[in-house]
Specification:
Protein name: Anaerobic ribonucleoside-triphosphate reductase
InterPro entries: ATP-cone_dom, NrdD
Strand order of the largest sheet: 4-5-6-7-8-13-12
GO molecular function: ATP binding; ribonucleoside-diphosphate reductase activity, thioredoxin disulfide as acceptor; ribonucleoside-triphosphate reductase (thioredoxin) activity
Largest sheet: 7 strands, mixed
CATH topology of the largest domain: Anaerobic Ribonucleotide-triphosphate Reductase Large Chain
Radius of gyration: 30 Å
Number of strands: 16
Organism: Symbiobacterium thermophilum
GO biological process, one term: 2'-deoxyribonucleotide biosynthetic process
Length: 732
């Protein structure tokens, strides 16, 4: 039958043209054999193809017959080449179709991968760029085995869309150094400030400038210490100003008691410092300078500077944050983090104990500050403070510096990749790979708790080992790619912000500086993993808890092993999953079905956390989760959920802090609803409508993976998780 029309892939019908078949085969012969087939032979092959076609063949049917005719005519190499070319074209077409679908979806409505990304044009353009970036990274710059693990939902490299441009995640900015020496944000040198308001404003400009060179958060680790010199300069300026004013009206400064001048100067300094810190809070919530019209993800650590000036910075920033925005709204940024340290602020009589109490008062109203314990066992021996990012990321020991030069400043995370512990458990249950367990257990000293020496548990460690190695490999490949860039690609970050970057030559590759950062293996869903393996999670079973510790300990050993092998700062991260938490459970449910306690809800529990819906006391949750912090040296956090703001009971928060430190936690926070009526300003827990004015226009701020956002901005999975959070009873 002679074909009359062809059905295209998009459904259109066009007239049949045998010349196109001839041309395609001619190109195949030239490409594979290096010569043009005789016209008569080409026509003969074309006629053979046409004779096999129905009246209205599809493009795929025509290509099938071309392959068959070439094979039957003995042109095997040409047929194979044609098949490979066809497969490549099909893959390219699928990529194009997938990108088209992604972009079309973004145009209609911005997704909720990140709760602080709006639906503005800039936000949509960012998501389009990220769709292209992730596609390019996965298809062109990713090992096939890694790509398969990503597609199967077992491995998830974070911020992969930024991979092609080689950005790093985050950094603890050396603010004191930059303010003292001046800096160049790109259009000219900024000299060292002389007053506190200027210093505070410049600190925010530094954040903006550096945010453009990284895809993650920005942090100041010692904000009180670094701004203290400018409080001192402010005070000196105020003293000089008072004396000048007195002399202007004919009163000699020596006629006024010096302490009266100093007292007035300090009062004015306090007022200026408060205004400066209020500006920091407002700037942090209004500088839409991060990609996608976001504000920078700002974290500020403070609380350990005991100088008069440093204490004033801490006090003023806490008070400004407590006051809120213009109409009393909850500030979303900065993430305030109070560094708790024995002998400095933890006990009555400590010089900054009053500031810790003020901090708890602010937390009881505003959710922030969070608290990072400097006296946790895993910080022992470190020569300085160990701050943290608001989301939980931390750095500490650097294998490339001697003990006396250890610092967190100028360092941060390079990239992190999360293992789907749940998906791996479901895979292990199905495959039961147990043959290599004995050797693995001997090598890594795996000790299965009593009652857990089961085939699926043995299989799990074998599968986990395989994919941990794959994550380590992927992180190293990404590191090598990041190192291929030049100093000029990151003009602010690598001009004095990142450790040793000032030593770089213009055309240097970046291995000598990036090696100071961390490469982190993350994990999600320990609770659901334990249910999949032995039927209970670690919050409800001591046996499950012991197995959970063994799993996380094993991952930490793998990270330490990689650090020695590659001489890089590999570390283990309790992943802060936002968009990921719903993605993975959807994939696993589609593959394995709905499994009670595992895939039967819309989210996986973050990292090592006890499930948010599990009913237990705050102290039980702290006991269970505390033991995991020491293993997660790339970052960790634990929360206590309260049913409402504890504004009248900050003492309860102090009791919880003490118990958290007793359980060797590193970084902690308290969660409760922060609701506010946009119509009348009523605050407190508001169920459906405002009890004062009846309005249903309610702002509902909740915590999501360490930072704050409007509940309405959460993705569906995190929204479901937030609505199922159980408030913990405050009894031991």
């Amino acid at each position: 039958m002679l074909a009359k029309a062809v059905i295209k892939r998009d459904g259109r019908t066009v007239p049949f043209d045998s010349g196109k078949i001839s041309k395609a085969m001619e190109k195949a012969f030239v490409a594979i054999e290096g010569y043009r087939l005789a016209t008569s032979d080409l026509h003969q092959l074309t006629d053979a193809v046409a004779a096999r076609l129905p009246e209205r063949p599809s493009v795929e049917e025509i290509q099938d017959q071309v392959e068959a005719v070439l094979m039957e005519a003995g042109h095997h190499d040409v047929a194979k080449g044609y098949i490979l070319y066809r497969q490549e074209r099909t893959a390219a077409r699928h990529r194009k179709e997938r990108l088209h679908q992604l972009v079309s979806q973004i145009v209609r409505e911005t997704g909720r991968e990140n709760a602080n990304v709006s639906q503005s044009p800039s936000a949509k353009l960012l998501q389009m760029a990220e769709a292209v970036g992730r596609e390019f990274m996965e298809r062109e710059l990713t090992d096939p085995a890694v790509r398969e693990a990503i597609e199967d939902g077992l491995l998830y490299p974070h911020d992969y869309a930024w991979g092609p441009i080689g950005t790093t995640t985050c950094v603890f900015i050396p603010l004191g150094k930059l303010l003292a020496s001046g800096f160049n944000p790109g259009h000219g040198w900024v000299r060292s400030p002389r007053r506190i308001r200027t210093a505070a404003q410049l600190s925010m400009i530094i954040l903006q400038s550096n945010q453009n060179d990284q895809h993650g958060g920005q942090a100041f680790g010692w904000y009180d210490r670094d701004l203290a010199p400018y409080v001192r300069l402010e005070y000196e300026w105020q003293v000089a100003r008072i004396k000048a004013d007195l002399e202007a009206v004919g009163i000699g400064a020596d006629e006024i008691q010096a302490e009266r001048i100093e007292k007035l100067a300090w009062e004015r300094t306090r007022a200026e410092t408060y205004q400066a810190m209020e500006g920091v809070v407002f700037n942090a919530n209004t500088m839409h300078s991060r990609a996608g019209a976001q504000v920078p993800f700002v974290s500020i650590n403070l609380g350990t500077d005991t100088s008069r000036e440093g204490r004033l910075i801490t006090e003023s920033l806490l008070l400004a944050y407590e006051k809120g925005l213009g109409h009393g709204e909850q500030p979303i940024f900065p993430n305030l983090i109070f560094k708790v340290k024995q002998g400095v602020n933890f006990e009555p009589g400590d010089p900054n104990y009053d500031l810790l109490q003020l901090s708890l008062r602010v937390t009881a109203k505003r959710l922030f500050p969070n608290y990072v314990f400097q006296d946790a066992s895993f910080n022992a021996g470190f020569p300085g403070d160990v701050p943290t990012m608001g989301c939980r990321t931390r750095v500490s020991w650097n294998i490339h510096k001697p003990d006396g030069e250890q610092t967190c400043e100028g360092r941060g995370n390079l990239s992190f990749t999360t293992l789907n512990l749940v998906g791996l458990a479901l895979k292990a249950r199905k495959e039961l790979q147990v043959d290599g367990f004995s050797a693995l257990a001997a090598k890594y000293e795996i000790e299965l708790p009593e009652g857990t020496d089961l085939p699926q548990v043995r299989s799990y460690f074998c599968v986990l080992n395989q994919y941990a190695d794959l994550a380590i490999q992927q992180l190293h490949q990404r590191f090598q790619y990041q190192c291929s860039f030049k100093k000029s690609d990151f003009p602010f970050l690598l001009n004095g912000v990142w450790m040793d970057s000032a030593k770089l030559e213009k055309e240097s590759t970046l291995e000598e500086v990036w090696r100071h950062g961390t490469l982190s293996i993350g994990f999600i869903g320990l609770a659901e993993t334990l249910v999949a393996l032995i039927g209970k999670h670690h919050g409800e079973s001591a046996v499950a808890d012991a197995l959970g510790v063994e799993i996380v300990r094993f991952l930490r050993v793998k990270a330490d092993e990689a650090a020695k092998q590659y001489q890089l700062n590999y570390s283990l991260l309790a992943t802060p999953a936002e968009g990921l938490t719903g993605k993975l459970v959807s994939k696993d449910r589609a593959l394995w079905g709905e499994i009670p306690g595992v895939t039967d809800k819309e989210w996986y529990t973050n990292s090592f956390h006890v499930p948010v819906e599990y009913r237990c006391s705050a102290f039980h949750k702290i006991r269970v989760e505390g033991k995991y912090h020491a293993y997660c040296n790339a970052g960790h956090i634990s929360y206590v959920e309260l049913d409402e703001a504890p504004e009248n009971n900050p003492e309860a928060l102090m009791d919880l802090l003490r118990f958290m430190l007793d359980q060797d936690m590193g970084y902690v926070a308290f969660n409760f609803p922060v609701d506010r009526c946009r119509n009348c300003g009523q605050v407190g827990l508001i169920e459906s409508s405002c009890p004062s004015c009846g309005s249903s226009d309610i702002s509902r701020v909740r915590r999501i993976t360490g930072y704050l956002a409007e509940l309405s901005n959460f993705n569906e999975a995190k929204k479901a998780e937030a609505l199922h959070r159980f408030s913990h009873v405050l009894v031991r």
